[in-house]
């Protein structure tokens, strides 16, 4: 099975934008609503920078070069915070996750294999090898540049981000943080929830006849009703993230009017389940790669 490798970074940059544009999601940026200092215009502008980084990542994967995750993250964050029409972190978590996933997929292609989910496991092994050799210095610098207001440190059992990581590798940072950060968990554990989203989207589109935007909305509610969002945990504490999970699950029973009231309350309170959005966007990117390559999730 042949895949146009040039389309892979495009799929993952456009999935970031499609997820952001999707209306009626719960308390995240959409084509209709913003949140805090984020709006859809900033996501549109940021998607171009993500594409550039992912295109370089795809080249590295294909030629078996090191992934350079830290430099990629630093580049995306730097462009966002210094751009006059963005001026804030828009895509730190998604950059970390999508670079890792694109590298895993293109590494498989570099081995002459089709990028099925089974074969992506082999690509993940190459990703791990590369991240184990990569110093965390640039990775930490990118996180510091993001200057997320809810974080004084990288969340997990690693040194404060204001300190130098010294001998830590990127893999060690992700592994130590995987119990506290869903993006790190995805990378360390071979993208389980990202694959889950891919499967959900395939089911919604192929079997239930929803369009992609409708499917993204449903997949977001599924994720939020199953897993506490770790960005909410960092902002408001673990109990708040668990309550949000239970309230979202309840919305699946109570229906649209309840969901609208819950959305309004969460937005007014500044609650942003952004880590769920990162995983949702990555799952959509994977779905697009699999679908356009005529492969199955």
Walk me through the structure.
The chain is mainly α and 297 residues long. Helix content is 67%, strand content 0%. The chain contains 14 helices and no strands. The protein has helices at residues 7-21, 40-62, 69-82, 92-110, 117-133, 137-146, 170-177, 182-188, 192-207, 212-226, 230-236, 238-254, 256-268, 274-292. α4 (92-110) crosses α5 (117-133). The protein is globular, with a radius of gyration of 18 Å. The model is unreliable at 149-159 (pLDDT under 50).
Supply the key terms.
297 residues; mainly alpha; 14 helices; 0% strand
In short:
The chain is mainly alpha-helical and 297 residues long.
Provide the gyration radius in Å.
18 Å
Low-confidence stretches: 149-159
Largest sheet: none
- Write down the secondary-structure element order: HHHHHHHHHHHHHH
Helix segment tally:
14
Strand percent estimate: under 5%
Structural class: mainly alpha
Quick one: how many beta strands?
0
Q: Estimate the global geometry from the Cα principal axes.
A: globular
Residue share in helices? 55-70%
The average pLDDT is: 90
The end-to-end span amounts to 14 Å
Spell out the blueprint of helices and strands.
Layout: H1 7-21, H2 40-62, H3 69-82, H4 92-110, H5 117-133, H6 137-146, H7 170-177, H8 182-188, H9 192-207, H10 212-226, H11 230-236, H12 238-254, H13 256-268, H14 274-292
Helix pairs in contact: 1-2, 1-4, 1-14, 2-3, 2-4, 3-4, 3-6, 4-5, 4-8, 4-14, 7-8, 9-10, 9-14, 10-12, 10-14, 11-12, 12-13
